[in-house]
Amino acid sequence: MVADVQFFGSVLVVEDSPVRIEWFREHVPHALFVSTPAEAIAAITAGHPDTVFLDFDLGTVTSLGDALLLADAPPKLCVIHSANEKGAAELKSLLPAALVLPFASFTIEHGAVIKTLPIRVSGHESYV
Predict the structure, then answer these.
(1) Helix, strand, or coil here: 99?
(2) Which of 90, 104, 117, 127 has its Cα between 20 and 30 A from that of 1?
(3) Cβ atoms within 10 A of the Cβ of 99, count?
(4) How many CB atoms lie within 10 A of CB 30?
């Protein structure tokens, strides 16, 4: 089980899915949203974000380059929210302090607290 995590400061969301972007906009309206690796690299170099929500698959490319840049100066909190398990593992290997929380396994309350959601595993309640 992952404990609930509080975050503050600047937030960068690296995501290309319109549905997920809308969800993040509703929950973290003050975030900066980018959907390509080039936009992410520009945002990271322009101002080091305190919190990063990072997806792996960005259309036909990945966010591995973004992770390499973040590894040099890690944010206070990085959440890898990719549903691609292999891709999330690659990002985690570059960002060992990052949390791996696949999209829909968490919610954000009050724009600053990540709450893990209970899931059902073999009839028992568990947490991601």
Answers:
(1) strand
(2) 90
(3) 17
(4) 10
> Which tokens hold the place of 125?
């309640």
**Count of domains for the chain:** 1
- The residues with which 95 forms a beta bridge, in sequence order, are none
Asked whether residue 47 is assigned to any structural domain, the reply reads: yes
What integer pLDDT is reported at residue 75 of this predicted model? Answer: 93
Question: Residues near 47 by Cβ (< 8 Å), separated by ≥ 6?
Answer: 10
- First-to-last alpha carbon distance for the chain, in angstroms, is 6
Q: What is the pLDDT of residues 11-53, one digit of tens each?
A: 999 999 999 999 999 999 999 999 999 999 999 999 889 999 9
Cα–Cα separations (whole angstroms), residue 32 to 4, 43, 61, 78: 22, 8, 20, 14
What is the C-alpha to C-alpha distance for residues 42 and 25, in angstroms, rounded to an integer?
20
| CATH number of the domain bearing residue 99 | 3.40.50.2300
Residue 3: pLDDT band (50, 70, 90) is: low
